[in-house]
Amino acid sequence: MATPINPSVRYYRRGTTKVLWLPAVADRNNVSRAEINAGTALEGETGAMSGWQTTSGTVPTPALGSRFTPVVGGEITASDSSLTFWASKDGDDVRTLLVREAKGFIVWMDEGDVPGQTMDVYPVQVTTQAKVRELDGAAQIMAQFAITSEPAENVTIPTS
Fold it and tell me: Among the four residues 10, 48, 84, 119, which has the most C-beta atoms within 10 Å?
């Protein structure tokens, strides 16, 4: 009999997940605690998020000697990604931090900032600060991001 996969310890994302803006990271595969501490925690003002996944394409590799067409792994891409924040009536909100064309890193700590757990580190450039205008909703600002190179996924969160 095959060994079953480990059962997951399920959790609710709100109140657990941390999302950070880091202005600088020397090595996205080995982020230091000092680099994390120099960042800004965004989750307290984040009202929505979209994207933040990578996908891999495939490339067909047909051969004349077979009717079957095998495939190999191909390009790695990241979906269009955004974070939507609550706008402040006095204008002192995310617009002062995530200005258009700012370069940095978005870090996702899905299970919280727990040393030994993992995080994903996305090198990004802010492309847009869009004001979300709805008749009956609270005012929001959507920051859209270009993911500028391959993210580092499942990087170990360093100790304090």
Answer: 119
The first and second tokens of residue 133, run together, are 């205008």
Which residue in this structure is represented by tokens 């974070």?
A: 83
Domain ranges of the chain: 18-156
The DSSP H or E segment spanning 34 is helix 33-37
Query: Sorting pLDDT into bands at 50, 70 and 90, what band is 42?
Result: very high
Fold type of domain 18-156:
Pnp Oxidase; Chain A (2.30.110)
Q: What are the pLDDT digits (tens) for 97-130? A: 999 999 999 999 999 999 999 999 999 999 999 9
Given a contact cutoff of 8 angstroms between Cβ atoms, the answer to whether 85 and 141 are in contact is yes
| Opening angle at CA 15, ends 13 and 18, nearest 5 | 75
Mean pLDDT of 34-54: 97
Cα 157 → chain centroid? 15
pLDDT tens-digit readout, 49-64: 999 999 999 999 999 9
Buried/exposed code over 54-76 (b: 16+ C-beta within 10 A; e: otherwise): eeeeeeeeeeeeeeeeeeeeeee
**Using only C-alpha atoms, what is the Rg of the chain?**
19
Structure tokens belonging to residue 103: 């370069």
